[in-house]
Amino acid sequence: MAVHRLCLADIAPQRVLPVLVLDDASLAAPVREALTAGGLSCAEVTLRTPAAATVMARMAEDPDFLVGAGTVLTPGQVRAADEAGARFVVSPGFSAAVAAECADRGLAYVPGVATPTDITAALAEGFTELKFFPAETLGGVRALTALGGPFGDVRFLPTGGLTEANFLEYLALPAVPAVGGSWIATSALVGQRDFEEITRRATRAVHASQLGDAGNAGRR
Ligand code: 3PG
Fold first, then answer.
1. From CA 186, how far away is CA 147, in angstroms rounded?
2. Domains of the chain (ranges, CATH numbers)
3. Whole-model pTM over 0.90
């Protein structure tokens, strides 16, 4: 039976993927609940803290919440993420070894790209949905618009420097099914246990992306 690997539209149906850097696993469930209350039932948990595997496992206890691992650089991290319940893997760059481990485990892999050469290499390996990182530093919306010429079939998940003020400009691009960013649940908000503000930010992001969709449909 063919394995259906998640695509970006499955990973982030509301078109916004919260990126989390959590160093206290006891906050995993409250953060998950705060995001869910705001309409976002997915998160990329970056493997930048010793607590990350436990954070993913606690978040994955809710079967309706889709947890992925971010900042994945090695096959060993893919194994750890899979065992913790992650269902997709995101990297800042492209790693053939990470891609192979994800394929063995049936996990979706969203590799990172920064240049036309990176994109060409990822396409050659069969990847058409790519993280564009660090998006703002690389030229943001203008860079993605330019890349859409030669790479019209590629879909991008821009992350790095996105905020409440600029993410809709990215979502307006046909090549961008979803965006990622830490602005919804920043480390500062999590540290302050300000779960209500996380819910407010998630709610605003969901509403704004839905309004953006309606506007785009009106123009078509
Ligand atoms: C990441 O993978 O770390 C994301 O790019 C997060 O970037 P941000 O903190 O600028 O949103």
1. 29
2. 8-213 (3.20.20.70)
3. yes
